[in-house]
Structure formats: C-alpha cells, structure tokens
Amino acid sequence: MRKASVDRVTKETEISVSLNLDGTGQYDVSTGIGFLDHMLEQFSRHSLIDLTVRAKGDIHIDFHHTVEDTGLAIGMALTKALGDRKGIRRYGSQVIVMDETSTEVSLDLSNRPYLVWKVAFTRDKLGDFDTELFKEWYAALAQTGGITLHVANRYGENNHHIIETCYKALARALRQAVEIDPRAVDAVPSTKGVLGGSL
Predict the structure, then answer these.
(1) Which of 4, 63, 66, 155 has the fewest CB atoms within 10 Å distance of its CB?
(2) Based on the number of CB atoms within 10 Å of its own CB, is 134 exposed (0-12), middle (13-18) or buried (19 or more)?
(3) pTM
C-alpha cells in the first residue's frame, strides 16, 4: 500500500496529513474552514485516495496561510507516497460537469511543478472564503506534489459549481495518474529513467 504521513509546523499553521493512494475514498478532514473541508472531502471521495487532514492555523487573521499550507502538506504526502513514481500511469485528464458548469483538469506527475490556472470567479467570496485562495491551494499542491497541473473552467455561472468541478476534475485526473499500469509495473514512465531530482 502506498501510504504517507506528513506533519508540517510553522509559526502560522500546524498541519498533519495522512493519505493512502490505494484507498477507497475515505476521509476525515478538519481544517477549521468549512468550505475547504468540503472540497477536500470531494477530492478524497473522487480520487479514491483515503485522506486525513488536521489543520490549525491563524484563521483569526484570514484563511490564506491555512489554505496554502494545507495544499503544501497534501502535496508533500503525495510525493512521499509516490516514491520513485515507478509503475504509475503518470498522466491524467478529466472533464467534469455540474449543472451549467464544465471544467477540465489535465496533469502530469512529472516532478516538474507548474500550474496553469484558467479559472475566473464573479464573486470575491464564497461565504467567508476568498475565492482567490483556490489558486493558492492548487499552486501549493503542484509545487510540493511535483505536478504539472492545468486547470481550465470551460464555462459556468455559479461560483460554487465552478470550484467544485475543479476539485472533482483534479481528483479524477489524479486517480488516473497515480494508478499502477499493469503493463509497466516496474518501469518509471519516462525515457530518462527517472521522475524526480534533476531531470
């Protein structure tokens, strides 16, 4: 089983993450931010990655540090669980629709972090959550998860639907990418022979 746990502690946040890439989508998430919890639950359920997150942060100031650092910690755990990335399919792509909204996520577990974010919101907040923080979470995940990550909302009107399709499409694409390819179980999916380190 490809499992990992990470504890990340700074003066701003204390975050513990445990995940199992070969899980069934079980989750136990508590960040102190209700909307983030909801999105991480969607992420776990649709990726089939079992996920436990405990986060304490300076949310009395704002949500920025907790949101970003949770993305960093999940990415760190993902990298740890993937190890040398041998046998994985590496690539994933998914289009998810929700009512009037359609979003596409494509990714490469290349260990070359890069985010392309083509998502626009018509509101600054969803409840008390600043919508600009979603990009920060995705950038943090890509950075420590070693993911080339492209997120594009194709169309939509409802801001909740837009971000929920982003998380569900990410989850489904990641589910494809981390899956072990039975035809190449012992092979790193690169002509370089390595995914990670200096490419």
Answers:
(1) 155
(2) buried
(3) 0.95
